[in-house]
Amino acid sequence: MTSLLEVEELRVELATRSGVVHAVDGVSFHVAEGETLGIVGESGCGKTMTALALQRMLPRPGGRIAGGAIRLGAEDLMAKSEAEMRAIRGRDIAMILQDPMSSLNPVMSIGAQVAEPIRAHQRPARNVLHEAVLRMLDAVRIPSPAARAGDYPHQLSGGMRQRVVGAIALSCRPRLLIADEPTTALDVTIQAQYLALLKDLQRDTGVAMILITHDFGIVAKMCDRVAVMYAGRIVETADVRTLFARPAHPYTRALLEALPSMEHRSERLKVIDGQPPDLRAPPAGCRFAPRCAVATSACHTTDPPAVALGPGHVAHCLLAGNA
Amino acid sequence: MTAPLLEVDRLRKHFPVRRFLPWNPPRQVHAVDDVSFTIGAGETFGIVGESGCGKTTLSRVILLLEAATGGAIRFDGKPVEGLAGTDLLAYRRAVQAVFQDPTSALSPRMRVGDIVAEPLRATGAASAAERRAEVARLLKEVGLRDGAADSYPHEFSGGQRQRIAIARALATNPRLIVLDEPISALDISIRAQIMNLLRDIQDRTGTAFLLIAHDLAVVKHMSTRVGVMYLGKLVETGPADALYRRPLHPYTRALLAAALPARPDDAPGPPPLAGELPSPLSPPSGCRFRTRCPLAGTDCAAAEPSLRGMGDGQSVACHRAEA
Q: Judging by beta carbons within 10 Å of its beta carbon (0-12, 13-18, 19+), is residue B147 exposed, middle or buried?
């Protein structure tokens, strides 16, 4: 498999009034053509900042890429000018955000919003553009697209709105789709519909996907490989089956054990005590060590090495492989 | 048999909708329609359903934050309607609440000690010294550090804020706590901490819980009995184990099928439920689920199914359901 996206030692810093937050601190991963990589972690772990950095869309002022390399195919995204990045966004990399109500323009019809990126990147003739818009709305299963294209976002339900966001994202046939918590705002049955739709669209178009989520159920259903993030770093990467069957990092293990199960009623859930660290002054050594049940004194001082445990399975833990 | 702690009997809450033009027909949102269930002392009754099904309205009517349009609520066998003076105060002491978002549930201008003491001040005659001692005991019970009473809510993380909200709910020694999505605003590693805390409190104090949540695994983990709501109606109730093992209503089955897998290799469920929630302004005639139901026939449009017992304490409102 060829790598579509390669990220090496990415570092993102956010300048805030109370100091510099090291939101992403040396993150490396790759995404192959057509595959789905899940980035899973809790709020504040840097998963969204990683996604924004890939498109060089960090919040301004304050956000900046402090180091690392991002390559999409043969292109070095770090070396692109702002104008070149504008041409890449929407055409090669597209994004779906969590809340469709705030990603859609409330005073623009949905048809016009789907047309916008196509017009910007391809400058087609009017009738071609119209056809393309209806085709996209149909592809995301908006019923009777010709009749609905003139509707405004408030006339649609939450699930339909998120489909429109999907249509906008995929309208220029991007090579990489970044979906950041795409179903968090949706109900259970609507979430199931939307995830099934994303899978169908991926099969039809071959788009590679980075799926950012905090929900291991979505990871299990959707992803080929998974990267688990904690406090600005990737702590474990594995293919999805290995991650669920043999989680090697204590954080991954603890997260999986903290989930309630529908199968059996356990008396108590295992918990991770404490809170994630303050990323203005992250702890030395392993960032999970202060909350880790098996940490040794070395864990508090030594940066954990990347330990290869199998094909594509890497855990950043001093103790990985010994257990 | 002694009377249940809380008895909800054909409870109804309709909200009038403002007419756009004076000659338009009056319309009402049927938020809760003929809902009946009971909660025994010390048990947890979980209500699941998607947004808009009326589960939060139901809890607000029970908390007397909204007046019922019809039906009755009995607490300890005595009707709640028309309570006034000391009787009303006693009910408010006995029934407390914890809401989804602890940040908006706690006043940012009050010290934590005052927040937790407020129910004592509002409903009791405890002296200031007694209140201080009680606050210290409550904060310890929910696992907050010494000295938390003198801090403000913004100095705490989301999980700790929810602990403050729980301490406040416990202040009056309630016999029933309404938990409206108590963990859905929290991170996964914190959710398990709060679920364990709630179960510990219940073991120690014998408080009953009415748990409202959309996460099926959370409801299963916490509840002794479960009710499933759809568009203002309770469509199925039963002991948690039986209901999850043998769901009888087609909507319950669809909800369980739409739940995300626990592991990547779990067999994919049946295709997700098609369509979306109809408007509660004009719910479908007969069975409200019939527009999305795979089993619906003409009789489902003609007659509204009512809850009927199916053995093992399970009841279902469906013409087609068979034990």
A: exposed
Three-state SS for B14?
strand
Whole-angstrom distance, CA of residue A311 vs CA of residue A314 = 8
In this complex, the residue of A189, A221, A244 whose CB is nearest that of residue B255 is A189
Q: Cα–Cα–Cα angle for A253, B101, B158, nearest 5°?
A: 45
Q: Tell me the pLDDT tens digit for each residue of B211-256.
A: 999 889 999 999 999 999 999 999 999 999 999 999 999 999 999 9
Rounded-to-5 percentages of helix, strand, coil across chain A: 35, 25, 40
Q: Is some CB atom of chain A closer than 8 A to the CB atom of B88? A: no
ipTM of model:
0.80
Interacting residues of B84 by C-beta distance below 8 A, sequence separation 6+: none
CB-nearest partner of B221 from A187, A190, A265: A265
Residue in chain B closest to A183 (alpha carbons) equals B260
Mutate to test the interface with B, among A189, A190, A226, A273 (most CBs of B within 10 A): A189
Residue with tokens 């934050």: B65
Q: Could you tell me where the beta strands, DSSP code E, fall in chain B? A: 6-17, 27-39, 44-48, 70-75, 78-79, 95-98, 176-180, 208-213, 225-230, 233-239, 308-309, 315-316
* Closest residue in chain B to residue A264, using alpha carbons only: B221
Contacts of B239 (CB under 8 A, 6+ apart): B224, B225, B226, B312, B313, B314
**Which of A193, A269, A275 is closest, CB to CB, to B192?**
A269
Q: Which of residues 176-235 of A touch B (CB under 8 A)?
A: 187-193, 196, 214-221, 223
DSSP A283: P
Nearest of A276, A182, A291, A199 to residue A232 by alpha carbon: A276
| Beta carbons of A51 and A22 less than 8 angstroms apart | no
Helix then strand then coil, % of chain B, to nearest 5: 35, 20, 45
10-residue averages of pLDDT along chain A (323 residues):
90 92 95 96 91 93 94 94 94 92 94 96 94 94 91 91 95 95 88 92 95 94 96 96 95 91 73 86 93 93 94 94 65
Cα gap B194→B177, rounded to integer Å? 14
Instruction: Give Dmax over CA atoms of chain A in angstroms.
Output: 68
Q: Are A163 and A140 in contact (CB under 8 A)?
A: yes
Note the pTM of the prediction, 2 decimals. Answer: 0.86
- Residue A219: C-alpha distances to residues A13, A37, A47, A240, B214 (Å): 27, 9, 14, 8, 19
Residue whose pair of structure tokens reads 């330990």 in the numeric block: A307
- Dist. CA A31–CA A22, nearest whole Å: 24
> Cβ–Cβ of B199/A268 closer than 8 Å?
yes
- For residues A217 and A271, what is the distance between their CA atoms, to the nearest angstrom? 18
